[in-house]
Known about the structure:
CATH topology of the largest domain: Rossmann fold
Number of helices: 10
CATH class of the largest domain: Alpha Beta
Distance between the termini: 33 Å
Shape: globular
Amino acid sequence: MLRVNIHKKLDKFELVADFSSDSGITALFGRSGAGKTTLINVVAGLVRPDRGTIEVNGEWLFDSTRNIDVPVARRRVGYVFQEGRLFPHLTVRGNLEYGYELVCPGERYVRFAQVVDLLSLGHLLERRPARLSGGEKQRVAIGRALLASPRVLLMDEPLASLDGPRKEEILQYIERLHLEIKVPIVYVTHSVEEIVRLAETVVLMAGGSVIMAGKAGEVMGRPELRIPTGVFEGGTLIDAKVAAHDMDYDLTIVDFAGERLIVSGVIARIGADIRVRIRARDVALALSRPTDVSVLNVLAGHVVDVAYELDSTAYVRVDVAGAMLLARITRFSVERLSLEPGREVFALIKAVTLDGHSAGFDG
């Protein structure tokens, strides 16, 4: 559990944050300059708030009214930066042991061998940072932070300096450490893809303030998200389970809340948890169930609300078995179909993308 309620004035910049998260990975999302890095620096103790409180798993790190301000060295906060920041004169083993020695033996809950195995570092232990790739350096940096047995792990855009293949590599390791070590993670990013892949809770920031916070599926399905972020393409996140495979057509059936989706073949076992993303532009709406169409997924629901853009576009939220499906259509279509709250419709889903939680469930 992470609770933050702080205020900090920095010259002309003002940081105001009030949110809580009880899930494993909390993403801080927003444009550059929104205050994301400043916020995690406050949690780490590198920046002192003017007032407020910070609580991690029932322990107070900061409380201005009770004069509590735990020093950085005693906060047991792991920090992974955009670049590894490894000690160049130490081997990988030395860098990892540095993190391990930072915490008293009685407070350690992470074992050296466990981290080496989790991050596949065994063959790198005697190398120095100069002989590591960008992805390897980040894995070592993550390992060093974990071996300090942190109360919370802060990650400041850890994939920013990596290319596509290395990003995918590190994403898989982050998913694994969340599942196996279960340390709370605060993950700073302005990448929608990384949020979809990892986050359970999303904290949206703009202009130094938290303007929205909640479960990833709820926050990322809000059409107005594009205004503060400038980069968002609306869509829906659905946590589902693999129900069956059709090997003849390389298709997979996934279940959610009594409904089913058919997606392109997934290498995942039956019963595995999986997250799917449905982009708003890939959803069309009809007033009656269509027949003789190529679209595989047609789901019944009802209109929740309609949000209009400045152009000819509208976002329609449709409740499908409790999941808020977002459809991006024209204003003309909204008027032609008389779409308004409560109207029963059928959602035609043209494409489903697999994200997060599908990794690692092979065989």
